[in-house]
Give the backbone structure.
Amino acid sequence: MKVAITGGAGFIGSNLTYYLSEERPDWKITILDALTYAGNLETIEPLLGKINFIKLDIADREAVTNIFATEKFDLVFHLAAESHVDRSILSGEPFVRTNVLGTQNLLDASRAHGVGKFVHVSTDEVYGALGPTGRFVESTPLDPTSPYAASKAASDLMALAVSKTFGFDVVVTRCTNNYGPYHFPEKFIPLFITNALEDKQLPLYGDGNQIRSWLHVKDHARALLMVAERGRKGEVYNIGGMEEAELPNRLVAEMICERLNKPKSLIKYVEDRLAHDRRYAIDYTKINRELGWKPEVHFQKGLPETVEWYVNNKAWWTRVKSGAYLEFYEKNYRNRGL
Ligand code: NAD
Ligand code: DAU
């Protein structure tokens, strides 16, 4: 079985690659990744030799076509994306290029060159924001509120359209917030852990009462394998965290300080994100009923383990928090008084 993982040098893609190399050792895996600011070869270095790596910008149509014509993949996990909401607020263009155009190129090349199944990895952010009650189900209308989420919604619809129009075997997954090792430190949990380790301020947006539903990245990887092997053509599957992991940002920030033995006074309330979604929560009944998946890692265990991982892998995140990272940090947080 020849398997392509786009975005495999990023957070979820690399964790998925580690998981699949253990669970399906006979699969021939190739990571396709442009190594943008969010991609890091160091993350997957221990796997090189066992898996193949090809540097590829998915928005480069000719390059995508050539690689798919040569490699003849059977299965594609598509995770490559511009993934940070704050960056999309600063500029939407790279999001349309990679998330929309890049996805279309992959769908076309996959269809033309014999791919049997295409797993399009998407997000619960396509549904927009929830009020204090209720959960997103697969039929919840799409109502994205950021350029990132809008680009993901567009790519979901293109993927589903290819399935409807041509009968191509595409499955779309929509997952809530992931956490775990190799999470890029522009995102909330790794940013707060690494800033706290450096005794820097922790910029909490707005009133800090926005709720996110946290899922350990390994649980996500397990769900993606099930969907690839048994998910039904043309279907959408929601993937989400346990109810106990639906927490306000303020509380998660405090848990991080406590775990690291740092003062909560490091938390600094700063100007809110534009159109900041108040709450996400996923109903994962469908994937549970059809494929038997449910989250297994409790946040009370997964968060301390993740904190530990950052404590033990300082060299990894120190190298990542340099160069272009600092330029973005300056742009995003300067006006917030950091
Ligand atoms: P990430 O930003 O950590 O990694 C993205 C990867 O894609 C990087 O390795 C980057 O180099 C690569 N990439 C970016 N543009 C590319 C291009 N033009 N061509 C080829 N490669 C390119 O992202 P992540 O958090 O691992 O997210 C992976 C996927 O999962 C995304 O599609 C995202 O929308 C989705 N998702 C993420 C979360 C989450 O909580 N992180 C939740 C639900 C869904
Ligand atoms: O729900 C799935 C989505 O989760 C994925 O599609 C995205 O790719 C992923 O980045 C994530 O989006 P969020 O916007 O929820 O994640 P982020 O880590 O950026 O923010 C989590 C929460 O923390 C959110 O309510 C904003 C808040 N936050 C974030 C940052 C970076 C802060 O308060 N301060 C910050 O500095």
Q: What stands out?
A: The pocket of DAU (ligand 2) is lined by residues 83-86, 123-125, 176-177, 187-188, 191, 203-205, 210, 212, 249, 273, 280 (CB under 6 Å). Residues 93-112 form the longest helix (20 residues).
